[in-house]
Amino acid sequence: MPHRAEMVAPKGCVTVRVGADGEEQRRFAVPLGHLSHPLFAALLEEAEREYGFRHQGAIAIPCRVDRFVQVESVIDRDLGEHHHQHLLDLDNCGATVTGGHNHSHSHIQLPRFVGCFRA
User: Fold this and answer.
1) Which Pfam families does this UniProt record tie to the protein (predicted)?
2) β-strands 13-18, 59-61 pairing
């Protein structure tokens, strides 16, 4: 019997797997613009502590799915009108998870995380 076709992240997004210990991991498509937000950097630092810097495969975020969605919602609001893409739940037929409002934020550089995004 053929497997259900897995959705892939659309252009301009990266796929991340999210889930704490004991929780089923879910896949999300995160807009590339979110990666420079300080809150997403904090999630990547969590992943680095949990999995190490040289983690292979898709980006894995070791936090509860509901917490991740809340953080992404804040990021989405912060970016507001500056971006047009939103978090997508790839395990739920690509449903949009967050909406945007306009708030200010600061950008940070993430050069040490470049290795996390290699396939």
Assistant:
1) Auxin_inducible (PF02519)
2) parallel
Integer-rounded Cα Rg, in Å, for the chain is 14
CA distances from 12 to 27, 81, 97 (A): 16, 16, 16
Amino acid at 15: T
pTM confidence score: 0.71
pLDDT digits (tens, 9 = 90+) for 37-91: 999 999 988 888 887 766 666 788 999 999 999 999 999 888 876 666 788 888 8
pLDDT tens by residue, 3-12: 445 778 888 8
* The amino acid at 68: F
From the centroid of its chain, how far is CA 104? 20
| Residues 11, 110: Cα–Cα separation, whole Å | 20
Q: Decide if 68 contacts 61 (C-beta within 8 A).
A: yes
